[in-house]
Amino acid sequence: MSRVRAARLDGAVRGEEGTVTAFVVIFTLALLLLAGLVIDGGLTLSAKVQAIDEAQAAARAGAQAINLPLFRSTGQVVLDPASATQAAQAYLARTGHTGTVSVNGDDVTVTVSISQPTQILAIAGLGHLTVTGSGSAVAEHGVLAPQPNGGAP
Fold first, then answer.
1. Which residues, 6+ apart, have CB-to-CB distance to 78 below 8 Å?
2. How far apart (Å, rounded) are the C-alpha atoms in residues 83 and 97?
3. pLDDT tens-place string over residues 46-82
4. How many domains does the chain contain in total?
5. Looking at the domain assignment, is residue 151 inside a domain?
6. Comparing C-alpha atoms, which of 86, 93, 132 is closest to residue 108?
7. Which long-range contacts (CB under 8 A, 24 or more apart) does 47-52 make?
8. Residue 61, Cβ neighbours under 10 Å: how many?
9. Is residue 147 part of a domain?
10. What does the alpha-carbon distance between residue 106 and residue 37 come to, in Å, rounded to a whole number?
11. Is residue 52 a part of any domain in this protein?
12. Residue 148 lies in a domain
């Protein structure tokens, strides 16, 4: 009787050969993709923060490009659109990233795009992720708060 049971168990095991191997392969791939989402997702969030920081800094650089002769003669703070655009683009060039700059009155808005290469998701065919960040700044007169045109702090 023990030989019959051994033969049945041996037959049952032979019919399920490779089942554990397929499970381990699928489970391993799922874990790799999950790790890719965590690692590459974190890197992408970091790139998004960097894009926002650079856009805000470039906008502040552009907002400093005021029309100096007009300010000196009247005390009025007015941006020079060409100089503001040039200052923001120069800042972006120093960071090594590209972006768009728009000047509307005294408001400078910058949008930066960063392409973040993936570390693990590249295995699944996703080589890079592109993130954008934007920031704006307004030319103002004053240190702690906006001062009236020509007013002393």
1. 66, 67, 70, 71, 106, 139
2. 19
3. 999 999 999 999 999 999 998 888 888 888 888 889 9
4. 1
5. no
6. 86
7. 47/114, 47/116, 47/129, 47/131, 48/114, 48/131, 48/133, 49/133, 50/114, 50/133, 51/97, 51/112, 51/113, 51/114, 51/131, 51/132, 51/133, 52/112, 52/133, 52/134, 52/135
8. 22
9. no
10. 41
11. yes
12. no
| pLDDT tens digits along 10-60 | 555 556 666 778 888 899 888 988 988 899 999 999 999 999 999 999 999
User: pTM of the full predicted structure?
Assistant: 0.74
Structure tokens at 153: 């702090």
Q: Which of 132, 127, 107 is nearest to 117 (CA)?
A: 127
**Which DSSP string do the residues of 15-30 spell out, in sequence order?**
HTTTHHHHHHHHHHHH
H/E stretch holding 34 = helix 19-63
134: which 2 tokens? 């934007």
d(CA 149, CA 21): 76
Please state the separation of Cα 101 from the chain's center in Å: 17
Structural domain including 70 reads: 2-138
